[in-house]
Every structure is written in C-alpha cells, then in structure tokens.
Fold these 3 entries.
Entry 1:
Amino acid sequence: MKIAMCVLCSAWESARLPRKCRPGAEALIMIHRQGFIDSTLLQLRKTLLALAACILLFSCVSIDPGSKAGEPAPALLERKLELLAEEDPEACIEQVADLLETDRAGGAAASILGRERLLEILKKSAQSLESKLESAVATENYAMARRYAVSAHALVLFAESGALSLSVLPRSFTAWVDPEVQIRLLLGQAEQIYRKSGYAAGKALIASAAAVPGSLIGAWIESDAPESPSVLVSDELSPKNACRTWVQRARENGDEDAAIWFEFLSKKQKPPVPQASGDSQKWLSAAIGSVVTVYVDRGFRISGGYSIPDRVVGTAFQIAPGLYLTNHHVIQSEVDPEYEGYSKLSIRPSENPAIRVPGKVVGWDEEMDLALIKSEEKPGNVIHVPISISLESGERVYAAGSPVGLENSINAGIVSSISRKIISFGEAVQIDVPVNQGNSGSPLFLSSGRLAGIVFAGLPNFQNINFALPSTWINAVLPDLMAEGKTVHRRLGIVLGKGSGQNPVVLADIGNSRNRLVPGDALMTLQGVSIKDISAAQLMLSAIPADALCIVGAERDFHSIVRLRRLSHNRGPSLIEIWDSADRQIILEALMGFRLISLDQNRNALGRYKVAWVCPAEIADESGIAENDVVTITKLRPDRKAKEFILEFSVNSLRSGYFERTIRLQMPGLSDTMI
C-alpha cells in the first residue's frame, strides 16, 4: 500500500508545482479548489488508481511472514529456479542447496516451495549439468567440461555429507567424478592451451593442478584401480598416452625435469624429487642469457622546478621464446587505465645491453604482482618453471637481475622464511638476498639451478628483508597470463583469520547466501580436502575453474556444517568495492575481526553492539577489545582514493572499569585473507 500511496501522492504534488515547472498547473489548481471535476482529471485519477491496484496486487502476493523483505513470491521463485535449471544449472544448484539448508534448520524454505519441490528442481538441475558436460566433451570444449565436472564432484560431495540422497542425482552422475575421468579432462584442456599458447602454458595448467593439497593426480596415483578405457572421454587423453606426448614435448624444449615427471606419471608412479643439475657456473651462465633489463620510459616529470626523466627499471626473464615474466608494478603505467601520461616499454638483452627492443604487455596480475611481456627478442636460453618445488628455510638461493640498471648482476643469500602472507592472493618467501631498485622481476634460483621464484618486493628501510613469489604460484597464474589481459581471481567471498587453532577461522562471509558462515566458524575442508592455512585454501581455489561449484566444510560449536558455494566472487579482495551492496555490519566484522550482536536499530553499521567473539591477533584484539564489551560505532566510511576505511567508535568494558575509550582507526580496504 505504501508504494501505491507514493504514486498517488506524486500525482497530487505535481498539481502544486510552480508555473515555470508545469504549464497549465495554475488552471488545474483552480479547478481543484472550486470543487469542479474535470473529465481529464477524473480519467487521470482512474488511471492512477488502476496502477496502484496493480502495484498492490504484485506486492501483496502471499509470502511467508518469516521471509526477508523483497523475498520472491513462490511462483516467481519457482519460475526463476526452473529457468536457471536449464540455463545456468550451477547457479540453480547453489540456490536450491541454500534453501534446503534453510529448510533443514527450520526456516522459511518449506513454506516457500517445500522440500520435495526443491529436490525436484535440484534433480532437474543435475540432469541439465550432466547434459552440458556431455555436450562440452562432445564438442571438445574441455575447459567448460572440466568446470562442469568439478561442479558435479562438489554436488556429489554435498550429497555424501548427508545434505541429500544420492538417488536425487542421475545414475551416471558419479562416473564424472572419477579421478581418471577428471584427469583426462584436465589433459584435454592442457592440450588445447598448448596448441594456442605453447608448451609453458599447457605444462603450467597440469603443474597447478598437481600442486594443490589432495590433488586429483595424487589421488589417482595412490588409487589401486588400474587405468582403463573410458567411454566418457577420449582414450587419447588417458594419462598414459597423454603423458608420453608431454615427455616428448618437454625434451624438445630442453625441460628435462618435466620430462622425468611426465614419464613417471605415464607409469602411474609418484615422480621423484629432482636432483641438482651439476656445475653451478654452467647453469648460472645459461640463466644470465635468459635475463633482460626492462625499461619503461614515462617521459619527464617536474621536481623542484626542474624537468627530469621519469624512468622505471626492472628485470624480466624468458620463460618461453619471446615471452618474459616480470612484476606488474614495473609495467603498471602500460596497463593502468587511470594513467594518462606517456609510457613506452622496451627491453635490453643481457648479451647486447646497448640496444632497446620494443615490448608489449600481454597479461598481468595485480594481486600477485606479475606481468607477461612479449617481444621479438628471443635469446637462446629459456628458464623453465618447475612443476614442483620444495623450499626450506636456510636454503641457498641466487637472484639474477639489473639492480639500478646494472645488467647481469648475481646476488646470493638464503631463504629466511618459506611463508609470508603479504599479498592478497598467494604467499611469498622471505629472502635475505641483497636486492635493489631494478631487481624487481629477477629470477630466484636454487643451488641446483631450478627456478625457485621471482623477486617482487623488499622493505627499503630494512636491510636484506626481501620477498619472492614461489614457482608454485607462478604455475597457478601462468595459463591466465598467457590467455592475455587482466587476471581476476575468483573467490567464494569468505574473509579468514588465522585464529588460535590448527585451522583458519571465518571473519566474515560477504556472499548472498541465506545461511552465511559466521565469524568464529573454523574452515575445515574445501572440496573434501583438509585445509590448514589461508594460503593452502587460496592455492586450492586457484585450481578450480571460475564459476564452478565448491563444497565448503566448517565447524561451529563442535558441529560440522557444509555449504555448497559457487566460485563467482569477481570483485577482488577489496571491501570498498562491495560497500554499496553488502551488509555493512559484515564489512565491519571483516575489518575488525570480531562478531557483533546489535543492541539497537543500527543503520549503516552505526550504533551499539555487544561483542560476542574476538579473533586473536586481529585489529579488534590488538585494540584491546574483548568478549562482552559494548562498542558504539559513530563513523564508518570508505576513503576510495586512499583505498582505506575510517572507523570511529567507543568501547565500554569491565576490564577498564566501564571507563569509555574512544578510538579512531584507518584500516586498509583490501583483505589479503579473502578466499
């Protein structure tokens, strides 16, 4: 009724508009005042009343009183799910699973559609998913086939968790989740990437799948079932046949480590740890030949009233003929849409540093600080990214690059720490190798000559505290870099904290689920595989195709909970990007690392709250906030230019004798723990 009244009021308000705003308004007002009923006005009123009736009809459809405001009516919801079941079965399955969980918990789902009807729609969605999977295989679209197969696997795991009966799924559905079938789809996608982007990209896809915890490749090797012909996927893509082809390709490209790895895999055997390649002087000389200096000429800038050259110098190394890996921050002006100045990229080969060869950025990843440059310059040596790598603290490493533009420089040091969470996606190793400006993008080598990673950052005011991205993470993003354009890492939309136990804990769930995970839930598994830290969770998700379904296992108050989610969050790690669409209390909980209970009618996260839980080592904990404290939020707003949030609040706690403390914080708007 409120909507209808707004429409009617807007018509009468228009009759009071000034003459400049509405011609003829004066006459209409006079007619109204004198009590005359003009036929035109009467017709207008009838039309408005009819419109109001229509609005009321659609807004007053019987909806369960326990549903949220704006909840679709049963008929509309059913029609929406039916359409999704045909067009986008994964989206439909995610929503139905969410409704089933609401129903199981005694919520409103049963009164909206009913469990039986939901299961019918889920069954239809599963059949549609299988049909799309079969069609993708038949047309040799292995990227889509692999995505659908991963979604099928997640749905089977969801059923096995007790959320529903396996009988709801098609009989042949479980055949698609067989490890060998999924490996064949992976090898089919790798084959197509090889044909399009070359050896390095195709190999990287296989390597990224092998590196994740509980990988399909590892599960297949450990299984007792012998390799057998599959009626689902071409036998040409069997691990035995496909890996023999990759052995030959690896040797043709001089990648002996990969050749050995694929040879063992073709025999269904676990590949051995690669041994040292021999004389360090020999591989160092070869490595230098693959390293180039990157120059980005940005014209001139004014400083102190003088015009001085504006240059960026970095390092890159050749990972495939004519393709060089470097850092995103080195070439940022080449791809930044907000940069409006002059920018020209070129490289200087190590064997002839006097010349400059034009280059072009073909792919970049801001979160992992990586970029791929293409150039006509093709040195004879290529630095291969290893399929697997093992780093130990104290291990000797070498960096080759161009510090302050000095080409062909080699620096040595050790690995200080194998895991530092200083980037929003992935993890870094800390090294004490002396690096300076110009070393960004330098390859980092083990004593064996194998690539350990790529140098990308350092602390300028602290000596020999520098960081490199491990080769495992290079493999995870390399196929996307070679696909060209900006890489966007898909997420589930869950912000994690380290917690005090063995598993990461949830700080906030910014998804659209009715059954969100709540702050304090412990993340236990992804796709049925145990997760011990945030980096392992991100590595696991990096191997799952975008928009595929993922099963999330958590623990709340010593009870297991399972959620079926889609890997579809594409706004990156920024909480500022979701400011206008997400629940702002959830954003506040993600920023601070606590769980709040509202004590009054809060608006835009402002108001009084009781603290129900605090995550150790997060901002709330470091600010001295504890459980049962009362916090009053007086300001929370994003500073989009500075990419940070400004928060002002007061705290009353028993520990301080209920003496009120007022605190103002400026917090980064990017979360480096979002999965």
Note: Confidence is low (pLDDT under 50) at residues 1-42, 44-69.
Entry 2:
Amino acid sequence: MLIVKNHRQGVWIAGIAVLVISFDALLIRLVHSAPANVAFWRGTLIFLSLTVFLWITRRVEEWRAYRRCGGLALLVTGLYGANTGMFVFSISHTSVANTVVILSSSSFFAALFSWLILRETLALRTWAAIFVALTGVWIIFAGDFGGGSRWGDLLALTLAANLGFTLTLMRRLSRLPVVPVVAMGSLAVALAALPFAQPLQLPADCYPWLLIMGLGQMPMATVCLLAATRYLPAPEITLFLLIETVLGPLWVWWVLGEAVPLRTFIGGGTILAAVIMHTYLSLHGQQSAPVSS
C-alpha cells in the first residue's frame, strides 16, 4: 500500500508541476525582451525567492546535505541551469510549437538514461504510452517545423536530452535536496546571462510578468517537477511533460491570439489519453500486486 500511495503522490506532484510550467512559454512571450534579459531576471528572482523560502522555514540542513553531495550536486545544478537557459533561448529563436514538441522527446532520453545509469527495466505500458503520446505530438505539429529557426530547434533538442539526463540523476541521487539545486542553478543562469543583459532597460510592462515568472510560477513548477522524481521513474515524469505540448500553445493562442488548428485538439486528446491510461494502469497494477510483509 505504501508503494501505491507514493506513486499516487508522485502523480499529483507531477501533474501540478506540468500545469504550472505550461504557462512558461506564454510568460516569456509576454515579457517580449532579449533572451539574456529574461534569463537574468528569471534566474535572479528564482534564486532570491527560494533562498528566502529556505531561510524562513529554517531548512539549513538542506544546504548542508547539498554540500555533502559534492561534485554530483554541482553537476545536477549545472544541468538544471543549462535547462533553464536553453528553454528561454529556444523560445526566443523558434516557435512555441517547435520548442515544446521537440522537448517532448525527453521521454526517450529519460528512458535511455534510466536503462544505462539506473538499470531500470521499463514496463511495456510505459513504452506504449510514450509511443502513443508522441504520435499525438506528431499529429499536432506535422508540417509546422519549417517556420522555426534551426538554432532554436537544436537548442530544444539539446534541452530534451539534458532534461532526461537531469531527471534520471535526480532519481539516482535521492538524498540530494531539490530546493538548493533549483536555487543555485538559477543563480548560475543569472550570472552567465549578466554580461549580455541590460536588466534595467526593459519596458515597464515587462517587470510584472518577470515577477510572476520568477517569484511564483517557475519556483513552484520546478520544485514540484524535481520532487516528483522521489516517487516516479524519470520516463514516467517526462511522459507527464507531454501535456505541456498541448497546453503551452493553447495558452499562447488564448492570450495572444495565435490560431490553433484542429489537429491540435485531435493530437492533444491522444496525448492526454496516453497519460491518463498509463497512470490508471500503473496504479491498478500496483494495487493488484501482492504486498510483502
């Protein structure tokens, strides 16, 4: 029963993370500023918000646990920082549709790294769900890749591989605290972007969106996403991320008026069906399994 409870908890955490993170592309577009400016403010605000959170909640031990992980902690921190930077620059150099659909291939990378690093044997239902969900992705974006920049598309593909590797390492390093990783990775992004940024020269209407992104949306989404690795395999988490493939372009359409073709609704239904069915089969299989004493 504990396994079932943990899996259900992981499903809820991953679901919340994906819902919140699906607004990311929209917020970046609303800022309408250079990628370096967005990366600087995004990293700075996330670092400040999470540092204050750790200080208020007196969770000093998390920083000690982070330091005890040594080089591996720095590796995961660097990977997370790279993820953040690549997403911002990819969104700025190609379409939202191209970025999120290429990012959905992280499920394949997560499965590969889980097999290589963790020696995890993936259930057939996970592979089947990944295939069905990516079929939905193809339905949505078939023929749309010509409008995006190759540089942005390459960044999105690199991000997909990096995300799959990061989630796999987080599952391997179960004692590595999540919040310091996100905080320090965000600081690294801000410092890397600073030489190329003009953070005080943005239009006034950009700053409210940056505050929403840096103090609320991204800290919550990222912490939930990395926390879900405590309960779910990395390939299953990246399967949840496919939902962003549907929601991300929909938010941009709703707010900014970008048209959404019929195939988005057809493919989106395919993706959601794959995720829901996989989750149901996972929970049903665990409940049916004998519990050892």
Note: The mean pLDDT is 81.
Entry 3:
Amino acid sequence: MDWKNSRRSDNIEDRRGFSGTTAGGLGLGGLAIILIGWMFGIDPGTMLQFLEGSQSQSQYSSAGAPPANDEAGQFLSAVLASTEDVWKPVFKQHGKTYHNPTLVLFSGQVQSACGISSSATGPFYCSADQKLYIDPSFYREMQKMGASGDFAFAYVVAHEVGHHVQNLLGTLGQAHRYMRQVSKTEANQISVRIELQADCYAGIWGNKLEKYSKIRLEDGDIREGLKAAEAVGDDTLMQRAGGRVNPANFTHGTAADRMRWLNNGLQYGEINRCNTFN
C-alpha cells in the first residue's frame, strides 16, 4: 500500500504510554483465559464482562508520554481516514449519514464502555461508545499467524469499522438482542454471520479505496488481505492451538468463508452483496 501521501484522521485517541489498572486486577489467569478464548474466536467483550464482573472502574497511571507521529500510529490514522472517505459517500448513496467512529490506540490494557480489555484480546469494536480499540503490537501477532503486510493490517481496521457500519445500520444491535434469546449454538451461528458480514464490508472498503482516498494499492496487497482472512478463520485458529475443530464452537467463520466474503466485498463493492443472514 502506498499510504504516506494520504490524509490522516482526526478521530484518534492515543492512549499508549498509559496503563489501565482496576481495583482487583484481571490477573494472569484471566489474561490466559481471554487469550485462549480469542484464539478460538470467542468474543473478547463477552469474556471480559464475565471475568471482570462488577470491576468496571478504571484508573490510568502514566507510564510515559504517548508516542507521537510514530510509523504505526500514522499508518492506522491513514487507514481510518480512508474508511471515513469510503463509507461517507456509500451511506449517502443509500440515503443515510455516516458518523465516524473513533480509533483508540493502546498498549497493555484499556478501558472501554464495554469493559476492561487487554492486548491479549486483539482488536475489537465497542458499540456502546462507537470506538475501535487496537494495540499496534497486534501486527506482530498477525505475522506469527502468517498474515503479514500493510494491507493485512489495514484489513483488520476495516473489519472493525465494518462492525461500526453494522451498528449504524442497526444490524449489530438486532443480532445481539436475538443472540440473547437463543441457545449457545444458535448464538454462535449468528456471531459467524456478523463477522462474515464485517469481512464483506472490509472488502467494500478495499473495492472503493482508490476511488475515494489517496491510498494506492500495490501488487500483492489483495493477496495479503485474503491471507489474513484465512489466518483468522475459526478452523485455522483451532488447528493452530492444537484443539479439535468443532464447527459448533465457530464464532467468526471458517478460513474459506472469511476469504469468500472478503473477496465478495472486494469484487462487487456493494452493501446488498454482503447479506450473510439469508
């Protein structure tokens, strides 16, 4: 990706350099549970709410000033700006108004309206405050999973923005309400559809990226994105963790499905091509 000449987003909160602490603390055991759950595609927010219980109060202690104008921060700001540039006209075409989310950069631990989260949970979107949370060091974890390249990391941002799009369209809230009324197996199936749709929306961003932003794609970028989608498939993660592949526990979709829906968005660039619920 050629991104350095593109604009930067103003909707960034850089909380790096600050550590979040709670009254009781999550503890190493809790972090291990969350990490295992994330590897198996379990929603980090759900696990955090379970582990934290009533510990919703957070205090931040300074660990040095947040880094300014670093490469990772600039890149993520540029990618977020490109999602703003893409989704604003797309929403307008459908007679709707796009409201930009905020991207929170953190290291270690962070407080969101959805609870307290650690870097071990990976990137996530909190619909309660309409913010995306990313620890830039997650890129190193992606490389360990075989997903490298700047477009692969940009896909992660675009996927989380996809959840914001779902939130604005009402899909996310409706799905979550329904999930609370059904069995765990049925709820997992709905979760998979939510995640695959976010992949498709990430594809729409990739489809319209050069039309609405100054970011330019380079040879191999699309391949990087598809490889990243493959790397975070439920079956891939379960196999990597040495566990048994159990479709009943899928919450994000198989590697093949994630690649297919991302590619669907990349190919067609249309919201109506991203209906994963029918």
Note: The two ends are 34 Å apart (CA to CA).
